[in-house]
Amino acid sequence: MADYADPYAVSGQFIDIMIAGWWSHFGGAVAEAVRAMPAGDAPLLDAGAGGGWGTRLLARTLPSARILAVEPSPVLRAVLLSRIAADDDLRTRVTVDGDDLLSARLPDRLGGVVAANLIGHFAPEERDRLWRDLAGRLVPGGFALVNLAPPVEPARVERAPMSRVEVGSRTYLGWAEAEPAGGDRITWHMTYEVHEGDRLVSRDEVHYDWWTLTARRLAAETAAHGLTTQPHGPTEAGLFTVATSP
Ligand SMILES: C[S@@+](CC[C@H](N)C(=O)[O-])C[C@H]1O[C@@H](n2cnc3c(N)ncnc32)[C@H](O)[C@@H]1O
Fold this sequence. Notes:
- Helix 2 runs parallel beside helix 3.
- It is globular and about 60 Å long.
- It contains 7 helices and 11 strands.
- By secondary structure, the chain is an alpha/beta fold.
- Helices cover 29% and strands 35% of the residues.
């Protein structure tokens, strides 16, 4: 954890409100998969939980489940922890951990994992560790749900608006563009602006690397650890279940 470089140190203040659109589009498909997770003795994991959209969905969908929400970014973890602590049900069932996923102390057994909008943060050798770890912890019938965000192969992404959120008298705008950065990586260039009427209140530019991953490669690298992938939900969601083989 000591050498974890937080790519959300600046943008974390905007991520939770701007990612809400993804959850309103695809939360239904995520919930449909989550309903099949065995929520018995083994807890569920929200990996890279951000401000807790996935955590709350897990709790809502499986009301007896215990949940571990791992979120290494302090700014996003503050949003997450406040949400959990403010809700009497969530605070009895959800534990928040601040390690990055590769160094977090995870429970020996997991009933299921939600890893939403996360996997591009991991290099191929890190993913290999994740799949091996997952294969060793999932209970029978348990699975992870991951999404592959476009582009799934390195490509230039022209600058385009990503989100627009009105809060009070201010408008929060996000733009995204990307370019290939060598190998399977791209670099995202994000711009976050806050406007009030004609006045630009603030502008932040953020750049971070992201590892692209195709469905075929996901299937191959998880199969190396005895895991099976299946697409889930609408194609645009890019969702896949990753399960131990029957
Ligand atoms: C785009 S946000 C998605 C947040 C949340 N999963 C959602 O969909 O609303 C990516 C999240 O992954 C987290 N993250 C990045 N690298 C991570 C790592 N190595 N271990 C755990 N989480 C990580 C970030 O801090 C951030 O919260």
